[in-house]
Amino acid sequence: MRIDSPSSLYTWSAFCPNEAKEAGIECCRMLWGPEKLHEFRQLRTTPGTKTLMGMNEVNEPSQANMSPAAGVKLWNEDIRPFGLKGYRLVSPAVTSAPSGLQWFQDFFAKCGDYDGQKHCGVDIMAIHYYGTQVSAFQGYVTKFHDVFGIPIWVTEFACENFSGQGGQCSKDDVWTFMTGVTSWMNATPWIEAYFAFGLLHDMWNVNYENQLMDKDGRPTDLGSYFLWA
């Protein structure tokens, strides 16, 4: 998703639907984690994309769950070399847990600059955010840019309270959050793209008020706002 119009998507995998190409939307291929390496190696240079994405939520035990050292090894061996072949490279993604910033600091300290690429070949930083306050979202995203100075993709976000304390977002809360964060991101030049959670039938453990697609595959009112407002 580009800031001004739908222009890219990803599927948390190296797979890309044929419909993306037909619609003129770039599908970015992701190496979700070590267990998906074989699939990624098979599909990463398939025509239709010039953007490769690193591992998903490396600081989350239920997701890719990788140490910075393990992340560096996988990145340097299977993603970084493609930056020298004209691909744009999106970093591994971290959750909005406090450990995310430190994970990236350790990652960049370990990955080395041996091939002349800045920031270990990372062209774009991927971060996720789940919370309920627009101001907290803004502060979180801004901190990553202040520390690393790399353009940002917010590759997951939603009005979701994972703290275990307080209430969950109402429909009105979700709309306030969506309109607030997207208008801010549209006006922030170093945020290149954002991807709301989610254009999905199954929202997993995320509040269904954030759902962007209905049971028939059509955009919800929130989805229509996200895609075209």
List keywords for this structure.
229 residues; alpha/beta; 2 domains; 7-stranded parallel sheet; 17% strand
Could you provide a short overview of the structure?
This is Glycoside hydrolase family 128 protein. The chain is of the alpha/beta class.
Structure description:
This protein has about 230 residues and is an alpha/beta fold. The protein has two domains: about 1-120, no CATH class; about 140-229, no CATH class. It is built from seven helices and seven strands; from the N terminus they run E-H-E-H-E-H-E-H-E-H-E-H-E-H. Helix 4 links the parallel strand 4 (about 90-95) and strand 5. Helix 3 (about 70-80) packs across helix 4 (about 100-110). The longest helix has 16 residues, at about 170-185. About 35% of the residues are buried. The model has no long low-confidence stretch (mean pLDDT about 95).
Helix/strand-derived category reads alpha/beta
- In round numbers, the mean pLDDT is 93
Number of strand segments: 7
Helix content: 25-40%
Unreliable stretches, pLDDT < 50, 5 or more residues?
Answer: none
Total helix count? 7
Number of domains: 2
Strand arrangement across the biggest beta sheet: 1-2-3-4-5-6-7
From the spread of the alpha carbons, the general shape counts as globular
Distance between the termini: 13 Å
Largest sheet entry: 7 strands, parallel
Organism: Hydnum rufescens UP504
Keywords: Hydrolase
InterPro entries: ASL1 (IPR053183), Asl1_glyco_hydro_catalytic (IPR024655), GH (IPR017853)
Pfam families: Glyco_hydro_cc
